Amino acid sequence: KNSPASVKNTSAVSTQRSNPKAPLVPAGSYTLQVAAVTNQADALDLAARLQRKKFPAFVLSPQEDKFYRVQVGPYADQKAADVARRGLDTAGFKAIVKH
Fold first, then answer.
1. Residues near 83 by Cβ (< 8 Å), separated by ≥ 6?
2. For residue 17, how many other CB atoms are within 10 A of its CB?
3. pLDDT at position 89
4. Residue 61 has what DSSP assignment?
5. Which pLDDT tens digit goes with each residue over 12-63?
6. Do residues 70 and 15 lie in contact, with contact meaning Cβ atoms separated by under 8 Å?
7. What sections of the chain are H helices per DSSP?
8. Are 59 and 68 within 8 A, CB to CB?
9. Centroid of chain to Cα 23
C-alpha cells in the first residue's frame, strides 16, 4: 500500500515509507483525495495549505506510478468522509472519496 508522508514542517518533509511520524490509514477507512501530481514540492505545498485550513492532509509517495497523492483523513465511515468533502468544497478544494 501507499505510505503517507507527514507534512507538519514543509522545510524538512520526508515521503519515505519508513517515516515513523506518517499517519496510519486503517484498513476499511475513508480518505479524500484532493490531487495527484508528479511534482513532490507541489504535493507538499498543497498538503501544507490544507493543513493551515485545519484539514488532516498528508502526501502518499508514488508506488506504481509517478504520482504523489494529496489526501485528507482518514475517516471511519462514509458519512464522516462526506462531511469533510463538503468542508473541502466550501474551502475551494475538490476531492474524491477513496475507500
1. none
2. 13
3. 97
4. P
5. 333 433 333 457 888 889 999 999 999 999 999 999 999 999 999 999 999 9
6. no
7. 40-52, 78-90
8. yes
9. 10
Greatest Cα pair distance, the chain, in angstroms, is 34
Strand order in the sheet with 68-75: 4-5, 57-60, 68-75, 30-37, 96-98
Q: What is the pLDDT of residues 72-93, one digit of tens each?
A: 999 999 999 999 999 999 999 9
Rounded Cα distance, 38 and 73, in Å: 21
Q: Which residue has the cell 488532516?
A: 56
Contacts (Cβ under 8 Å, ≥6 apart) of 49: none
Cell numbers for 49:
495549505
Q: What band does 69 get if pLDDT is binned at 50, 70 and 90?
A: very high
Q: Around 5, how many Cα atoms within 13 Å sit in the side-chain half-sphere?
A: 25
CA distance linking residue 50 with residue 35, whole number of Å: 11
Amino acid identity of residue 2, one-letter, is: N
